[in-house]
Write a structure and sequence with these properties.
Number of helices: 10
Strand content: 5-15%
Distance between the termini: 142 Å
Largest sheet: 3 strands, antiparallel
Radius of gyration: 48 Å
Structural class: alpha+beta
Shape: extended
Helix content: 25-40%
Length: about 325
């Protein structure tokens, strides 16, 4: 019993020095020890200010506490125009230095010479000079055709039929005048012909109202009948160039439905009824006349290139009565 515990001595010394300390027997945790004043409050960390304090800090080289870091938003980058932009005149300033700074830099580099215009003036003139003054003849012809010839495309709703059953009807009406196609669908025995007939009548009304097709020639004018040859080799006589014909007709596969087929012994089979749509492109007969004339001109040009031309009658020279070998 003569041995004295060291922990008791540490506790008594801490009580005399007014320091709170609680020893632990572990190395993984440490108790935070904080000194207290006579009043029981922790001392303030505020640094004393004065002449001697400042001299002491200057001599000893003590640094001032760093200010807290406050995160700032990244600097916003604004776009600008390039030095060769043709819109710099409208905006008034490019993305580079201001015009006054540009003029000052040019005067420093080339003293005694004055700037005749902005730095981007030559580039602007070059860009205008590099542009083609006129479009290619092919694009002009296409634009002229779209302005003078009318067309209308109409897509139907989904029919309750398959592609295999609707595709023969689409091939039957393709290339025929619209009135003739309507007449054929009216007397067709196919089940889907009734849906095709309704769609053709709707497409005709849309073409007449929206595109102004099939309204006939103006009053007091008449056109001579033209006989054209189609791509299939069939000859056709056209009396009215404003009448409507079906240039293209194709079939679109639609979504499959769902149905149930009740069988014997309580069995049910799943049915997938198909849906199919029809699309047609309507144009006037003047388009067919233009295409026929273009085919005839191409064929004539091709025949002319393959024609044999007789050589001119010249005197034969450089001939020898003996063979050259």
């Amino acid at each position: 019993m003569g041995a004295v515990s060291p922990y008791g001595q540490l506790a008594r010394s801490a009580a005399r020095s007014h320091v709170l300390y609680a020893p632990r027997r572990t190395f993984t945790s440490t108790v935070v020890c904080q000194a207290q004043n006579d009043n029981g409050n922790p001392p303030s960390n505020k640094k004393k200010s004065g002449f001697f304090s400042s001299v002491k800090d200057w001599v000893l080289g003590e640094s001032k506490p760093k200010a807290a870091f406050t995160p700032m938003a990244p600097k916003r980058e604004e776009g600008g125009l390039g030095a060769s932009s043709i819109f710099a005149d409208d905006v008034g300033q490019t993305s580079g230095p201001k015009p006054s700074k540009q003029k000052k830099q040019l005067q420093e580099q080339q003293p005694g010479q004055e700037e005749e215009g902005p730095a981007f003036g030559n580039a602007q003139q070059e860009s205008h000079a590099a542009r083609p003054e006129s479009q290619p003849s092919s694009s002009i012809a296409e634009i002229q055709i779209k302005r003078t010839e009318r067309e209308s495309m109409s897509k139907s709703h989904w029919f309750k039929t398959s592609v295999k059953k609707l595709n023969p009807l689409a091939r039957q009406i393709a290339g025929k005048p619209l009135d003739e196609a309507i007449l054929q669908m009216r007397f067709s025995k196919k089940k889907a012909a009734k849906d095709v007939l309704d769609h053709l009548e709707h497409a005709k009304n849309v073409a007449m109202v929206r595109a102004g097709m099939g309204l006939g020639l103006p009053s007091g004018t008449s056109a001579e009948p033209v006989t054209v040859t189609l791509k299939s080799g069939e000859r056709k006589k056209i009396n009215d160039p404003t009448s409507i014909y079906i240039q293209q007709a194709w079939v679109n596969r639609g979504p499959y439905g769902f149905g149930m087929d009740h069988r014997a012994r309580g069995q049910i089979n799943r049915l997938r009824p198909p849906a199919t749509g029809l699309s047609v492109v309507l144009k006037e007969e003047k388009t067919r006349i233009r295409e026929w004339q273009q085919r005839e001109a191409d064929a004539l040009r091709k025949r002319k290139t393959q024609l044999w031309t007789q050589l001119p009658d010249r005197k034969i020279s450089a001939q020898n009565q003996y063979y050259s070998w």
